[in-house]
Each structure stands twice: as structure tokens, then as C-alpha cells.
Specification:
The structure is a homotetramer of 472-residue chains. Chain A has 472 residues and is of the alpha+beta class. In chain A, 29% of the residues lie in helices and 25% in strands. Chain A contains 18 helices and 23 strands.
């Protein structure tokens, strides 16, 4: 499970959740978003409808901070969608909190998305030229405008038309006064799955949210599939022909909760296999295996199992750090005041330590952890990373920051090893990684997106797409 | 000055304030809105610009609750507009908090308004039919869409085009990245005035906000006038030809702060004259004159001066009641627990009391006050009202509630007297009221709107306008 | 009514309120404290008992901020006492919030007081020498220790013994598991009065709180009287023989709410008489009379009635200023940004103004107001003060700050006039003031304390008493 | 590491932390308490002194909620003590937040403790009989009164006298204006250890807090030892002769953070040995080992290592649950809405699962977890507990609730197995547990308290001690 407070880490954009036809629709959405909290801690929002009006509540903060019994009780009705969000842009962040809600000629419309479009900017410019006004900087508003300007009246037709114009990565939930529409991008970059709870239909970014509410998993939504549910029942249709399947590989490596399954593969078990694969590719003589909590624990256990080196809690994370934590001054930091991670002296002192982490982005965190372990008496520190080097920016909703900041974009593994001060450093091979996750061996790259490793982007990329990722 | 907590009262919609070219633009706007707080206690908002980006903060609550030093400091730049708002609609109220901020083809746009349009609904339907989506239920968003869809590029031309389509009562401030545009409706229904502070231009709904910041009053904005200020200086133009002047008479009677001037007439002094006129029209033998605090104090002092009956504090208002006040249960209320107003026994016991109030809307408050006075020992209670009977709804931004609820729409003065339990009841005559306020004696109805008294509406009224004011 | 935000003003310490035998004891106490809010805005607290346990809630803030329905509902039981407090001492202020609650050998004990002891320090030293530990810096804790160390078991006997040792000004309410005890100091310096609500007994610092809950005033508590109420009913006894009656005269001049009565005299009417007396003693040719809101309004109306000069709203107070108001920078203040008070130009421009205020403490506020009036165009400003010059510190619970800061302690009236920049300045005479308030003409100084005017302190004063009032 | 939200669990009372002579004393205490947060989440407090005055801040909530930069900055001075607290008593909880602060004849006194006295009640009765008044229900206030009433002037002498009267479990920090005094009870029931940071002395309940601030561990405080630090340096003395060493065994099993050392033994490693010992004593044929997060993870890894059965994440805890989480209704709970723990279907489905937990208190949680695993498809669930059955209440500061509620006090292991629905259930043997922890093999019970397992209490127990643990 990923971390709550983030400095030198990859950050997903969102988790989404939707309920069709349940008397406690907004409360179930609350529990669902709560289970998806790891996918976005910046803002949370739910919109419900009783068939005539839209009720909603959105705010900055964790799900448990944004909602209380009182607010949930005001969100009446049997249909609801919600979103948790991590956002990187500073200004006007509350405005971008989802679901976005609009009124248009056919009535009310709410949208919750996960992902990022690669051609939002030119479409937005076109819309503005035709007199549209925008209230957010979110891609999602573009979709709403395209629906509103469609010549089709039915939301599903209008959405199909809109999706034919947009490109990128997205899982989306759209709610009107009487219909829930669900869609996933043609490459299947962002996860989305379906379940039943009695007569109700439930959709979620991850299956762990189904377990939280006792819903029964049905299947993952297909790339390019659109599902429409209204009083006549559920219909599935395709808005896009066959495209390369390209699930984000970091969902397995890092983002998803270990108890979630993606395409029927359990995430924790996939991570253990990544650890075992790492052990096969890069064994080392050592006394102790430890993982960076919490996301690398599974891989570390896998590495330990495969090598027979005992797994120990060599690093401890303080769980109570939050947004209100008083950061130590530089002086205190230099004198040894730690914040989030501590190395456990009795475990690592005098020991050769294998430290498993899921990725290296800028390298500063890795250097910090290696330092912690050495200061606690480790005689050797061998770093093993359960993903290949991240050398290219992601344009599909993962915050990899500027390309220049990606240490692997400009340095060899040996250079990185020196920078982080490890005795040895190895990254899992891309082929080993794909095999360890273990999906469909016949598909191109086993159906995964590997663009951040090898720049093999599954969609078109434009100048407008790249610009925000360049340093000025 | 009007009351903060409102049950059976008239409620204005808003106060607006804008600053062009001052290093502390947002802080001045804060002080200005603070001085206009009596015009709207539900939400407050400020938007500033530094020429490239728009910074804004809006929330539910009083100005001092919505803003602190930190938030004001983030609102950098030398131009700012703000609004305080009273809103009657329940749902999604934060969404309607102003200034509304949009991005359109020419850049950023912020709008703050006071008033109400009478043809917003059909324009909105037209816009939606052409693919516009709406995020608020506010009239103001209609204006933004009309600007965005205009074929003109300059905001002043686009606004002029937009204003040619809308009808109703409005004072408005529009801010782009480099220009401030100010306009008042052709009838001059809602007040708006201009001042200078050094080189800066300042606009406000009332002059009391100029006094609060030490700005020098220049003049009131003219009906149908549009003022544009940019780097080339200030230009005044007209977007509408001559129309009947129709200032809201309740601005003098009730809404405006007593220390404000409207068209050069001080509000407190006008109210004292209303009290004197009442004394002339409806004298009575009595021992004590008292006013309903705070809005009727001036009129009561005028009545006392004219009649020689001493003015006393016969009614006291608890100033500390707020939104968080625990309301007494029905049982406690019946046993005598009071909330907001108390009658002062030692002042009224055994006395014949003249009680001055500014208006009667539903009559329930008046009955309550008469009861308070009697319970405190008043032997007679003579009620004198410094406005004529309110018998018709206002469509220009005053919340007079449903027509059926206006007691004067269905009852004679004598019937109302019986309902409120007074020994006598008199309303000032309409002619006496207009004369007492004392403006331009040559104009039609001295340049005032009297529609709520006599249904003589200065603009067209449509079915769509009236619908929301009818009980279903 | 006094002001909520205080710079150069006199500040009372507290208001107290108690209920014996009412099913809604804590809710009534809430309403009572709310009506007494003007006597203390820093903290509020209520303690109730159901006969076995004490329930309480205290915090910094206004009554409506400290309590909500939830907290009041936890304060069950039919007996309750509460306090609102203004406190001048900085450190550990929450600790001093009352009621203070203790456990001692006889059970629970809660105390709420208003006033100040003049010999608390030596008693405290004695108690500490005998092993007592203190948790507050409040005088009131001394009383609790004296009760706990008494050889008497009954709280009334123990309290009688304790009161025989303490000297000073106090009104106090003491609650045990089954008994309510009420006492006033032998000189009657601080007000306290009694009422009935059905079968219940209610006590309050001022009668306005009785009006707020519909309770029927019975009588003021006598100086040196102790009242005990338990299951056997009410008993009155005296703990002190006859002493000089010395009610604080500033209760009439400034502190009490105008709708309260003290010893059967209405405060508003007493203030009007003070204004009339001022007019008799110090008439002046002028065009307008205005009062500093809110506390001087009554006196100003009295002055206007006596002289025939019209009363006008020449000064306006912004009611929405609160603790969270962003103070203007020095620079903005010099440029004219006002905070609390504004002068109304249309009222005072070109006019000779009589400005009535209730007192001058340091003189800085008066100078500020005179400046405001002149800047708004007043041609002459004549200041009339409805109390004699305050030249001596109060040791009985009024915060007159250091003696050196009292402008009248070192300057003549003419010097003060020059300092505040008035055209003329007059203070009411002490005799005129006492006569205007109008109580018992046969008593020494009509039964009032005048120590802050003439240093005639009704109790002994010790070195320990004076020390905190000297600047070091 | 123990859990943050607690239903059917053991709860420690406190963690304490103190700093002598550091310029950032209160900030270091903040970081120290933050590292000790797992020992108490209900309230937090810090008191510092600059040699003349005591500054303090205490409130309900987590350390990061109670303190911010502003509050820490007000806590000036180079000496500070603090406490985090878990408290079971409902009423007046803020009053019991520590450090308690008193004024007594020698000046200021602050106390922070961890533990529980067994004879506080009779001492308290004696003190009250002699006129002491109490403001809290805390044992700690008794110690303060004993110090205040001592005939000795020096705090260390007075404390020595006080400790000669009290019995029970305690680690305590006492701060006066110039001295820090530290003491541990004669049996060493509650942990306390010492470190240096440059010239400063630092004390803490656990060593993990030293790691957090970079302080160097020196040694554990000895049972019956008192340490005094003032301007003359550090002195160690004994206030009690030799007694049976009886460290709380649950510190190793459950309470302490896994990265802490107690008496030089790392807690995580001790837990792994407990798991291995369990495997030796109670092996089972199974497919998967899983631990109840987070406290049983180490033991589960040990069990897996010893048996060769793979360790998997079969149970997941939602980390974002907090006090504000909306609890599911009974109906939703029955329909499958989970709160804190989820079983991972892909991991346990069709598998024989060994589930390791640290203890069984009432048994309801164990039953719940067994149900979760079965519902997720586990074919067999074998429960292994890393402590012996808890059959007796703890009187030394651990909240074991009423004796009747301890399932092991009335039921055999087989009965408990049936109640929780496991296929097999085994508790580690007491001897095995003591050996696995691995301390001094020559001491009686290896120097551990085992009272909750075998009722062998290391101190006297009185009727007053037992009473609160009986159900009425």
C-alpha cells in the first residue's frame, strides 16, 4: 500500500466509485472511496441523485475528514458516484475536486474520472473559440462540454461522440438524472471493475472497495467498452475498435492496494513474485532482507523467501505523521531528528542488509534510506528495485514530475548507485517484471504500458501533451 | 442597519466592491466588504489579479470568518473585486458564492453582481440549447456565457452586447486580466458608487465602505452607464438610452447603513424625516416612543422629536446571537425564553407606547413584538410603520417571499392591526414617504421604484419572472 | 451596552448565573449567560449536577462558540451554575475559566464568582505553607481551599468561616451535590439578584437575564447576605454585620445592559438622567448631539432632550468586527482605513457637534473619535463625559490598568482637553452623577462606591492589593 | 505496533518523555511523544520551563492534532516533560490530561506518569480528610499532594517520602523550576530509559523515541531508582530496597514499537522468536501464514520462517480509519460492509490458513477475523496466539476491562476455539513465552510480571484496588 505523505514518490491521480440503485448509495460510496483512499488523499467528493435533483459534497481532505454522518445523510437517492483525488497543481484545487457537476440542456450531469487526456488542450481551445467558458483546469470539463454541444440527446450517444474526439488514459463514471454510464479508454490504461450487491451495480477503480462493502466482483471493464445502466437494465457497447492493451504496470508494482486483484491477479502475490524475480536476477550475500514500508513489504518477503535470507523489520514508518506534523528545522534534521522512517538499530547493526524498494524517482529518498541504515550500523546496504529504471514521464495521470528530475533519465545504474551510496544497486529487468506479474503471455508486452521505462507510449503524444512536463 | 438573523424580514441579495490599481487591492476589498456586511451574511468572496492569473477565495460565512491574513495574502495583485451575499436558495449555495470566475477565449473573467434579472431563464434555455453548460443557478453565469459567445473580442463590447439582451436590476463589476468594467441597470434599481483613493479607483454598493477605507467619494454610477478602467485610464459610456429612474426605495427605508449616502442623501437623516412624516400623518397620545432595533432607531428618534414624546430603549436586541445559537424548544419559548428581542419592563410598564418599525412583511414579527411589549406592562401599543404596506413581490433582488405570504396583499390595515394585536396601526403614505426621503421632486415618483407597494414595476415582467414567487 | 472589543476601555471581570431545581437547568444557564455576554467575552463555562456527579464544560470564546446542543445535552441535572469571564491575565487563561470544580472530603464543589479579593495573596501564601497546591491563579481557588480546610462539614458553615477571612468585592455561587449557596460581599460592590421561574430559583448578575428566560424578578441579594437552597427550601442568613453600602457606580454608567434594573432602577433611564444632568451642568451651543455607540447612546439622547439640540447618528460602529478581524497595517491606518468606528460625514459636516461618552480612561480613544469627527467636517467638537474623571485604580474587579495610564491621575481637565483635541471638555460632577442615578438620598454617597473617582475605597487596601497595579 | 482504534484490545495508559537542558526542549518532546504515539492516542501534553514560569499545552487528540508550530513556540525554555495518554474513564477526560501542573509553596511542579497505583484511593481519602482538594481523578494528583504536604523542602526528598507511601506500577517525570526528577517503581513494571543528546539528558518510555531525535541510548532506569538532574549535574539514588523484578511481559508481546529495545532486547526480534516458539509448540499443516496487522506481523513472519509455510498478506487493515469514520449500520454490517480489517480472497481462497494474533481478550475480535477468513474462502483456519491466555485483570495500568469479560477467565481453550469458530487454537506456553523473549534466565520468571496469565501479582493488592474491575 502506498504512502500517505509524499515527497519523492510517484503519485496517482484518482480513485472512482459508483453505485446504481441502492437505498444507501452515498453511504456505500463513502465506504468505497474510503477503501480507495490510497489512490488520492487531497480531496474527496460524492454526488448522488434522487432522480430529480443532484446532491453533492466535495472538499479538500481525507474521506473521513470531508464527510460525516450529517453530510452523507443529505446525499439522498439511490444512485451516486464519487472520487478521491491526488492533484499536483497548486492553484484553485478545490475547484478541480470531483465529481464535476453541470446543468445542460438535458438536465443534470456529474462526472468522475481517473486518468489524463493527451489532447485536452487543443479541444479546449476549440471550445473556447466557440464560446464555452470553463470553471476548472480539469480535463474532465472538456468531456462535459463535448457532451453538451453534441447533437445527440441521449447521454450515451453524446458521450460516444465525445470519446471519439479525446485521446489518453481514463476510467470514467457519468451520472445523469436517471442513467449511469461507465467507460474505459481504448488501451485500458486505468483500471475499472464491476460488481453486484444484491440488485445493485457497483463500479470501482479497485476490487478492494468491493470487499469493503461485501459486493461480489463480476469482471473488469474492457478497454474501449461503455456500459450504460438505466431503468431498462445494463447494456454494454464499444465506442472504440481493437487497440493495443496497455494496463499501467505501476498499478501492480506500487499503486494498487495489495488485497486488490487486477484482471484476476492479486497484487500482493504479484509483488511477491517481483521480489522472487529480483532474487533470481540479482542475488546477493547478505544477513537481512528489509522492505521500505508499506509498498515494498510484499516484494521484500518474496525476495527473502527466494533467497532464504531472513526478512526483518529493518525500517519502521511512523504512522501518525500527517499534514499537520511540525517539520524539523534543517538544524535538527542534521542532528538526527527523523520524520517518517527510522532504521531499527538492533536489526541492522553489524549486518549486511538487502533493502527492497518499488522504484527510484529522483533518488533522494533512496539516498536518505541508505544513510539511515548505515547510521544504524549496517555494514553493507544492497538496494534492489522491483521496477525497471523510470526514465520517461507519464502522460496518463501519474505524477512523475519533470523529466529532468527523473534520475534514471540521465544517469546509469552505476551512477545512481554512487549517488544513493549503496554497496550495490539493481533494477529488475523489464522482461522479468512483465513475466513476474504474470498476465497474458501472448499479448504485446503482456498487455502492459511500459512507457515510463522505455518511452513506448501506447497513444499519440503531442507537443501540447509534453509541454507541462518540461522545466521552463 | 438591518439585522443579521432573519425570519420575517426583507433580505437584499448582495453588496459588491472593487478596486483598480492599488497595491493592497484585496485587503481594501476585505475592508470594503466588511463595511457592506449588512447587505449579505451568507457568503463572501474576493478575486484578485496580478495581470496574469486570477487568485480567489470564497466561502460560506461572514467576511471575518471567510478570510484571514493568510488567505488575503495569497490574493496578490493590484486589481480585485468582491461580493457579500445573502441567498435564498437552499441547494448548492457555495457554488453561487461570487465573484464567479471563468476562463474563456480571451483569458480570465470574474463577475460580481447585486440584483436580479427578469429574463435570465429564457436566455439560459437558449444558451443550453446551443451547448452551454452551467455550474451555478445564478443569473450572473448567464452574463458570462453571453460575453463568451459574443463576436466581439474586447470585454466592454462583449458586455455591452450582453447587457442589450438582459433585463432587470443589477449593479455589476467585471474584471479581466487587465480591465475593470462597471455597470448599472438602465433604471438604476441597485445602488453603485465611485470613489478615489490616491490614484486608485474604488467602487462600492454603498458609500459607508469608502469611509471605512478613507476613500474620497466621487459620484454615484448613472443608470445605464458603463465605466471601463484599464491602463489607458477611465472611460464612461452608455449602453442604454434614457429610461425611467427607479431607485429601490427600501434602500433608504431599511437596507442601507445609516451612515451611507445615496445620491447625496444621508440614509439616517432620511429615516429621521420618515419618522417625522409619520408623526405628522399619524400622531398619537402616548408616553414613550421606541424603535425596533437597529433599523428603526432613526425613524423612532424622528417621530419622538416631532411629537415631543420621549424616545426610550423599550426594546433591546441581543447582539451575540449567531448561527450557532441554540434555539429554545417550543416549550421553553412558551414559558418565556426569548431569543433576540426583549422588552424593557421599567421603560414600558404602565406606559402608552408608540412602536416604530420599518416594514411589515408577514406580520408575525410585529405580533411578537406587540406581545413582548404588552407582557412587559405596556398599557397601549401604537404601531407606526415607516413604509407603505408591502403588497407585491419584488423581482429585483429583494427576498419578499411568496406573494401569498405578504400580509398586506390580502388584508386591510385594520385587519392587520387586529392580527398583530396593536391598539392602532398606521403606515406612512406613499407620497409622504417619497417626499420625506427628499429626492428630485420633478421626476416620476421622485425617481423611486415603488413596485412592492403599488405594483408599478419599472421593467417588463414575464411569466418566467413571476413563477418562482408563486406557491405551488 | 458595552463594547465587544476592547482597547482603551474599562473591563468588568464576569457575569454569573445559577439555577436551582429546573429540568433544563443547564440550558437556562446557557440562555442566562448569553444575556450576560456583555460582562465577559473571553471564556464561558457551565457546571451542572444530577445529585451524584458534576458535569461541566468550559472554554475560551463566546457562549455561542463554547456551547452547542450536544455539549448542553451532556450537562444533565436540575442544578447548574455558570460564568462568563473577561480576564486580563495572559498565561493559562483556560485554567482560570469558571466554574472552578473541586473534589473535597464532602464531595463535589463548584464555584462561580464575579469580583476581586483584596487579601487573596496572604491567604494563599498561608495555605501553600500548609501544603495546599493550586491549579489556577484565580482568587476563587482560595475560597475553595478555605472551605476544604474548614472544621465544619456543612458547606454553608464552611463558607461562612471562609468569608470571614476574605475581603474585597464578590458575588458568588457555590454548588455542591445537593445545595446551592449564594453570597454577596458586605459592601455590595458587585450586583447579584434573585428570581423565580415556576418552582425554580434563579440567580443572575443582572436582571436582563431573567427577562431572557421569562423568570420573575424577586429581589436583589443583600450585601453580606448568604442564601442557601436545598431540599428543605431557601434560607437567608447574614455572614457579616452592617457595612457601608457601596455599589459600583460604573454598573450604571457603563457596564450593565440598559434593560437591566439595579435596586429597582432601570439602567437606560439612569443613563438618560446622567445625560440630562450633564446638559444642566455643562450646556453648549451646538447643532448636533451624538453618542459613542453603544454605551453612550442613552446619555446622548438625554442630553439632546434636555438641550433641544437634535440627536443624530454621528458615529457608527461596525458590528461585525470580531476576534478574527484582520487589523489594518499602520500604513493603511494612516491612510484612513478605519476599524470599528466611523463618523458620518453628512451628519457632522459643517456642524458643531456635542459628543457624549461614558468615561475617559487613557484618552487615546477620545482623541481618535475627536479626530474622526473633525476629519468628517465637524467645525467644533464638544466632549461631555457622563462620569467624573477616573483617577484611581479599581481593586474590585474592574480592569482600570496601571494607575500611571489613567490620564486623569496626572492631568487637569484642560490638559486632557488639549490632549484629545476637543473644543471643550466637561465631566459630570460626582454629586451630579450620584443624584442623577437617583438611589437612596440618605445613604453615604447614596450607597455607591466612588473610589476610582476620589480614592475613597470602601474596604481595606494592602500593599499586596496595590502591587499588581503598579508599573515596574 | 499496536492499533490506533480499539475495541477488543488491551490498552496501555501512557507514554512519557522528558528533556533536560536543550534549547529546543519542547520541540524535542514533541518529536519524542510523536514516536510514542502508539502508547496513547487520547490526549497529549507538554510542559516546559524557562526557569521562572511554566508554559504548557494539553488537549484531547493525537500529538499532531494537539500541537502546531505556534503552540510549540510558546513552550519556551530548556527543560520540558510530556505525556501521551490513553484513558478509559469517560468523565472530565481533559482534566486528566498530563503533565499535571501545580503551584505549591516551593514554586511550580509538573508531573507526567505512566502506570497505575494500587493504593491511591486510601491515600486520597486521608488527604481529603486533611483539607486537600482535588481537580482530577488521576492517581498522579495524589503524588503532588504528598509532595506539597511533605516537611522536606527539596523536591527529591519530598518525592522520596511520597514514594515510600505509594504502591503500584509507575514510571514518572517530575519537573520543578530548576530540577528534573525521574523514578521507576520498585518492581520495574513500566519501562523507562535514558539517553544523551549532546549535553542534554533525555528520558523516554521507549528507545524508539531516542532514534526519532538522534539521541544516544545510555541505559534503562533501574527499578526503585530515582535520578535527579539539576545545575549540579545528574545524581542517581534509590528510594526502595531490592524487590522482585517484574517487567510487564505485554510490552514485548504487544505494546512497544517493534523498533524499540527493552533491556537491550529488540522487540521485533523478540516477537519473531515468539512466533518461532509457537511453531515449535504448536505446528500445523497449512498453506499460508498470516498475521493480524500490525502487532502480529513479526510473530507471523517468525512462525512462517520456522515452519516453511509461506507468509502472506491474508488480512489487510485500512489505515485511514479515524475517530471521524462513519460506522456502518448494523444492517450494512450484516450485509458485509467491513470497517477495519479485510481478508484478501486471492490469498486465502481454498487455502488452509494459520492466523497469528498476539492475544485474546474477549474473543469477539478473533471470532470476527476467523469469519472474515472463512467468508473469503479459507478452507481451514488455525489460530495461534503469541501470549498465554489472559485470565486475570491487570492493576498496573493496562486496561483489561472487567474480569468477567476476559474470556479465558471462565473458559477452556477448547471452549474458546468453539466460540471463535477456529479449526484449531493454541496459546504459547508461559514458559515458552518467557524463554522466547529471552531475558535473564536466572531471575524469578525471568524478571517478568505474568499476573494477567497466572494471578501472581508482584505487589500487594487491596479491596480498593480490585473494586473498579468488578462489574456492579
Amino acid at each position: 500500500m502506498r504512502d500517505e505523505w509524499v515527497f519523492d514518490e510517484l503519485n496517482e491521480e484518482c480513485g472512482i466509485f459508483g453505485v446504481y440503485d441502492h437505498v444507501d448509495a452515498s453511504l456505500l460510496t463513502y465506504y468505497g472511496l474510503h477503501a480507495l483512499q490510497h489512490r488520492g488523499q487531497e480531496s474527496a467528493g460524492i454526488c448522488s441523485t434522487d432522480g430529480t435533483q443532484f446532491l453533492y459534497h466535495r472538499n479538500m481532505g481525507l474521506v473521513t475528514e470531508v464527510f460525516n454522518t450529517e453530510t452523507i445523510n443529505t446525499l439522498t437517492g439511490s444512485m451516486a458516484i464519487g472520487q478521491v483525488r491526488y492533484s499536483t497543481t497548486g492553484e484553485s484545487r478545490l475547484q478541480n475536486a470531483q465529481p464535476l457537476i453541470f446543468k445542460y440542456r438535458e438536465g443534470n450531469l456529474a462526472i468522475a474520472t481517473n486518468g489524463n487526456l493527451v489532447n485536452a488542450e487543443p479541444i479546449r481551445r476549440q471550445l473556447e473559440r466557440n464560446g464555452s467558458i470553463f470553471q476548472t483546469t480539469s480535463d474532465t470539463e472538456v468531456i462535459a462540454h463535448l457532451i453538451a454541444r453534441s447533437t445527440y440527446d441521449r447521454v450515451e450517444d453524446a458521450l460516444k461522440e465525445a470519446l471519439s474526439m479525446i485521446k489518453g488514459a481514463y476510467a470514467l463514471l457519468i451520472m445523469t438524472d436517471d442513467t449511469l454510464v461507465v467507460a474505459q479508454d481504448p488501451n485500458g490504461l486505468r483500471p475499472l471493475c464491476m460488481s453486484r450487491l444484491g440488485e445493485s451495480y457497483i463500479f470501482s477503480s479497485e476490487t478492494c472497495a468491493f470487499d469493503a462493502i461485501g459486493a461480489e466482483y463480476v469482471r473488469d471493464v474492457e478497454p474501449g467498452e461503455m456500459i450504460i445502466i438505466d431503468k431498462d437494465g445494463l447494456r454494454s457497447t464499444r465506442f472504440s475498435g481493437p487497440a493495443r492493451r496497455a494496463t499501467c504496470s505501476f498499478e501492480f508494482i506500487y499503486f494498487a492496494r495489495p488485497d486488490s486483484d487486477i484482471d484476476g491477479i492479486n497484487v500482493h502475490k504479484a509483488r511477491k513474485r517481483l521480489g522472487k524475480q529480483l532474487a533470481t536476477e540479482f542475488p546477493v550475500e547478505a544477513d537481512v532482507v528489509t522492505g521500505v514500508p508499506d509498498s515494498s513489504t510484499s516484494a521484500a518477503i518474496g525476495y527473502a523467501e527466494a533467497t532464504g535470507i531472513p526478512y526483518e523489520l529493518g525500517l519502521i514508518k511512523n504512522r501518525y505523521i500527517g499534514r499537520t506534523f511540525i517539520q524539523p528545522t534543517q538544524e535538527l534534521r542534521e542532528r538526527g531528528v527523523k520524520m517518517k522512517l527510522s532504521a531499527v538499530r538492533r536489526v541492522v547493526e553489524g549486518k549486511r542488509v538487502v533493502m527492497i524498494d518499488d522504484s527510484i524517482v529522483r533518488g533522494t529518498t533512496s539516498r536518505h534510506i541508505v544513510n539511515l541504515l548505515r547510521a544504524a550500523g549496517a555494514t553493507e546496504v544492497h538496494v534492489r528495485i522491483s521496477s525497471p529504471p523510470v526514465a520517461n514521464p507519464c502522460f496518463y495521470g501519474i505524477d512523475t514530475s519533470h523529466r529532468e528530475d527523473l534520475v534514471a533519465s540521465k544517469h546509469t545504474v552505476e551512477e545512481i548507485r554512487q549517488m544513493i551510496g549503496a554497496d550495490s544497486l539493481s533494477f529488475i529487468s523489464q522482461e522479468g517484471m512483465l513475466e513476474a506479474i504474470g498476465r497474458d503471455s501472448t499479448a504485446y508486452k503482456r498487455g502492459f504500458c511500459t512507457a515510463c521505462f522505455d518511452a513506448d507510449y501506447p497513444t499519440e503524444i503531442y507537443e501540447d501533451t509534453i509541454k507541462p512536463y518540461l522545466k521552463n
